[in-house]
Amino acid sequence: MTAGAPDSRMVIPRTGIGIDVHAFDTEALAESSPQEPGGLFLAGLHWPGERGLAGHSDGDPVAHAAADALFSAAGLGDLGTHFGTDRPEYAGASGTTLLREAARIVRSAGFEIGNIAVQFVARRPKFGPRRAEAEAALTEAAGAPVSISATTSDGLGFTGRSEGIAALATALVYPLQ
Ligand SMILES: Nc1ccn([C@@H]2O[C@H](COP(=O)(O)O)[C@@H](O)[C@H]2O)c(=O)n1
Ligand SMILES: C[C@@]1(CO)OP(=O)(O)OP(=O)(O)OC[C@H]1O
């Protein structure tokens, strides 16, 4: 092997990053009907009684940031490349549906997924009690470990004013040889 040149037998993992933000939807309060439940969809879970987020899909910034990080790691563009708002089939789509589809696309391009880590910024909902449930939902959708953490912004900025929720994700993928 030449000094400085990568060994062609080495599997070089690739990292990716994704950020997503959704604003609270003032009309999406509480439950509306069993067919179209109101409330919040976040981290692959439904949070009845919490104010919902606006979006073409269900507006889940945790799942969207995770999917964006996968596309970023694989060099396959971003969420808009694959699930644009011009695609009626994704109207109202759940975060787990989008993450499952993103993982399928990344695997079809010849990658396996190492893991995804996501952190969201919000005062509410209190995440700790449902962390295991959310991690299980997104891990099942991605077919790879997804870890999720939450933080507040100490009352500062748009998350501090409860105008929306922001999420940041990283992902690791590696090419299958
Ligand atoms: N929506 C949230 C936000 C935070 N947590 C948990 O609280 C811890 C402290 O948050 P600070 O922003 O005050 O540092 C944080 O590490 C989380 O464990 C939460 O559960 N849900
Ligand atoms: C997911 C898509 C498509 O339904 O819509 P939104 O739910 O608005 O989500 P966003 O993260 O703003 O962008 C990606 C969109 O293409």
Automatic annotation (TrEMBL):
<feature type="binding site">
    <location>
        <position position="20"/>
    </location>
    <ligand>
        <name>a divalent metal cation</name>
    </ligand>
</feature>
<comment type="subunit">
    <text>Homotrimer.</text>
</comment>
<dbReference type="InterPro" id="IPR020555">
    <property type="entry name" value="MECDP_synthase_CS"/>
</dbReference>
<keyword id="KW-0456">Lyase</keyword>
<feature type="binding site">
    <location>
        <position position="22"/>
    </location>
    <ligand>
        <name>a divalent metal cation</name>
    </ligand>
</feature>
<feature type="binding site">
    <location>
        <begin position="151"/>
        <end position="154"/>
    </location>
    <ligand>
        <name>4-CDP-2-C-methyl-D-erythritol 2-phosphate</name>
    </ligand>
</feature>
<dbReference type="GO" id="GO:0019288">
    <property type="term" value="P:isopentenyl diphosphate biosynthetic process, methylerythritol 4-phosphate pathway"/>
</dbReference>
<comment type="pathway">
    <text>Isoprenoid biosynthesis; isopentenyl diphosphate biosynthesis via DXP pathway; isopentenyl diphosphate from 1-deoxy-D-xylulose 5-phosphate: step 4/6.</text>
</comment>
<keyword id="KW-0479">Metal-binding</keyword>
<feature type="binding site">
    <location>
        <begin position="56"/>
        <end position="57"/>
    </location>
    <ligand>
        <name>4-CDP-2-C-methyl-D-erythritol 2-phosphate</name>
    </ligand>
</feature>
<dbReference type="InterPro" id="IPR003526">
    <property type="entry name" value="MECDP_synthase"/>
</dbReference>
<dbReference type="GO" id="GO:0046872">
    <property type="term" value="F:metal ion binding"/>
</dbReference>
<feature type="binding site">
    <location>
        <position position="64"/>
    </location>
    <ligand>
        <name>a divalent metal cation</name>
    </ligand>
</feature>
<feature type="domain" description="2-C-methyl-D-erythritol 2,4-cyclodiphosphate synthase">
    <location>
        <begin position="14"/>
        <end position="173"/>
    </location>
</feature>
<dbReference type="InterPro" id="IPR036571">
    <property type="entry name" value="MECDP_synthase_sf"/>
</dbReference>
<feature type="binding site">
    <location>
        <position position="161"/>
    </location>
    <ligand>
        <name>4-CDP-2-C-methyl-D-erythritol 2-phosphate</name>
    </ligand>
</feature>
<feature type="binding site">
    <location>
        <position position="158"/>
    </location>
    <ligand>
        <name>4-CDP-2-C-methyl-D-erythritol 2-phosphate</name>
    </ligand>
</feature>
<dbReference type="Pfam" id="PF02542">
    <property type="entry name" value="YgbB"/>
</dbReference>
<feature type="binding site">
    <location>
        <begin position="78"/>
        <end position="80"/>
    </location>
    <ligand>
        <name>4-CDP-2-C-methyl-D-erythritol 2-phosphate</name>
    </ligand>
</feature>
<protein>
    <recommendedName>
        <fullName>2-C-methyl-D-erythritol 2,4-cyclodiphosphate synthase</fullName>
        <ecNumber>4.6.1.12</ecNumber>
    </recommendedName>
</protein>
<dbReference type="GO" id="GO:0008685">
    <property type="term" value="F:2-C-methyl-D-erythritol 2,4-cyclodiphosphate synthase activity"/>
</dbReference>
<feature type="site" description="Transition state stabilizer">
    <location>
        <position position="56"/>
    </location>
</feature>
<keyword id="KW-0414">Isoprene biosynthesis</keyword>
<feature type="binding site">
    <location>
        <begin position="20"/>
        <end position="22"/>
    </location>
    <ligand>
        <name>4-CDP-2-C-methyl-D-erythritol 2-phosphate</name>
    </ligand>
</feature>
<feature type="site" description="Transition state stabilizer">
    <location>
        <position position="152"/>
    </location>
</feature>
<comment type="similarity">
    <text>Belongs to the IspF family.</text>
</comment>
<comment type="function">
    <text>Involved in the biosynthesis of isopentenyl diphosphate (IPP) and dimethylallyl diphosphate (DMAPP), two major building blocks of isoprenoid compounds. Catalyzes the conversion of 4-diphosphocytidyl-2-C-methyl-D-erythritol 2-phosphate (CDP-ME2P) to 2-C-methyl-D-erythritol 2,4-cyclodiphosphate (ME-CPP) with a corresponding release of cytidine 5-monophosphate (CMP).</text>
</comment>
<dbReference type="GO" id="GO:0016114">
    <property type="term" value="P:terpenoid biosynthetic process"/>
</dbReference>
